[in-house]
Design goal:
- It is a single chain.
- By secondary structure, the chain is an alpha/beta fold.
- The chain contains five helices and five strands; from the N terminus they run βααβαβαββα.
- Helices cover 36% and strands 18% of the residues.
- Helix 3 packs parallel to helix 4.
- The mean pLDDT is 98.
- The structure holds 1,3,4-trihydroxy-5-OXO-cyclohexanecarboxylic acid (DQA).
Amino acid sequence: MKILVINGPNLNMLGIREPEIYGSATYQDLVDIIQREADTMGVEVSFYQSNHEGDLVDAIQQAYGKIDGIVINPAAYTHTSVALLDAVKAVGIPTVEVHISDPDTRDEFRKISYIRAACKATVKGKGFAGYLEAMHILCDSN
Ligand code: DQA
């Protein structure tokens, strides 16, 4: 089982950005936690982070035929990007949407998720643990 973990804009700033919402742990801490869990689960995991919408679309397309499941936190593009929705639909790879916070309880504009329609599940408001839960959802249904 090969899982790709994709993180969108500003998630490289974890630990610095709004720690009261996202916590004080860094993006590298997130990668380490996911890698440890993947090792325990016996799955192969790879990581991609970009601040650029088109690069995220490219990463999803490049996963076609190579990756069995995608864990994606599209960050702000959750609420704006039809392109990411279309990319997930195009490749047909089982995908779980993750958010560190719970966007549904924050600003009105965060309540819309375009990508959700193409995802098998959404895990939100559980901090970094949400990424681990998403990997388990993908493995359990594989
Ligand atoms: C986020 C929530 C989004 O609304 C926000 O734009 C982010 C992070 C989260 O992980 O809680 O950048 O996806």
